Amino acid sequence: MLLENKTAVIYGGGGTVGGAMAGAFAAEGARVFLVGRTPATLEAAADRIRAAGGQAETAVVDAMDASAVNDHIDAVAEKAGSVDISVNVISQQGIFQPLADISTPDFVAAIGNALATQLITTKAAARHMVDQESGVLLFFGGSDPAHSIPGLGNVQVGMDAIESLRRQWAAELAPHGVRTVTLLSGGIIDSFPDIPEMEAARQGIVNASPFKRAATTADVGRVAAFVASEQGRSIASTQVNISFGACYG
């Protein structure tokens, strides 16, 4: 198993993407800790993992509360003995409008909140990883500077900002043996709400790929597990493109 005896903390673990990552980590032998604010979705994801023979625990924690996040990850480290993988897939508040139509307070708040939760959770994990001289911080979404299209509002700006944060972590943590990797996705179509309004967005993601295909949550989980494993140890301080060629970042 790729992740046997490893400990993974997934913020947003009750969501579609977070749950897929957690399931893939557990299938490869990791003990996973699912964190979020909604007990029902967390437990549903954990139950699926347990039913498949994996190890999963849940905790209701507000990832904007630094004290709560630190208390939780300290408890995980004490219980499991290490913090080997940390990933925050909590979505930012996407405002899909022309920039000219978005109020400054709304724009600033959305980007600020997205950066804040990422900074809080990565700081918490990094403390333990630096002490261990090992660990993997995974990020999701990524930055594609080659493609900009109208109407994305704050969405790509926020992902670009988070990728900049990831690069800074890479510079500071690599000397301590901590890898930072972003999964550059271009959009995961089976994570979208199953409503007619999203069909055009799904098709647009497929059309953007030269293969006319789009990554799924299962693809996300498989790649994340490999990247986080010792077999992926040379993948560091970079993005891994899982967009079927739609993104050029």
UniProtKB/TrEMBL annotation:
Its EC number is 1.-.-.-. CDD domains: SDR_c. Keywords: Oxidoreductase. One of its GO terms (molecular function) is oxidoreductase activity. Belongs to the short-chain dehydrogenases/reductases (SDR) family. This is SDR family oxidoreductase. It comes from Streptodolium elevatio.
